[in-house]
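Record type: monomer structure entry
Structure origin: computed from sequence
Chain ID: A
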Amino acid sequence: MGITEVRTWVIFYLLSFVVLLVAIFITTQNDSQLWISLMLIIVVVGVNFFMLFSELKRYQARKAFMHRMSKFDDAGTDTDSSGHRW
């Protein structure tokens, strides 16, 4: 994970935290808007799970790509009788 990706995740989780704080604020008010806070919480948790699973899938794809590339490099080594590649 690069530095730019870390910054993106920090901003994403700070925004998620703010949305959860707004949901808590709406819940503590005595208005009948409990469904709005519940919807906000479901959306934030759903987006977080989606982002986590997409990041795991991207990591697995990168790992599989690197594994395929390392096998390609091993299969492509042609050496002569003295051990030098040509």
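Annotation 1: The two ends are 36 Å apart (CA to CA).
Annotation 2: Residues 34-75 form the longest helix (42 residues).
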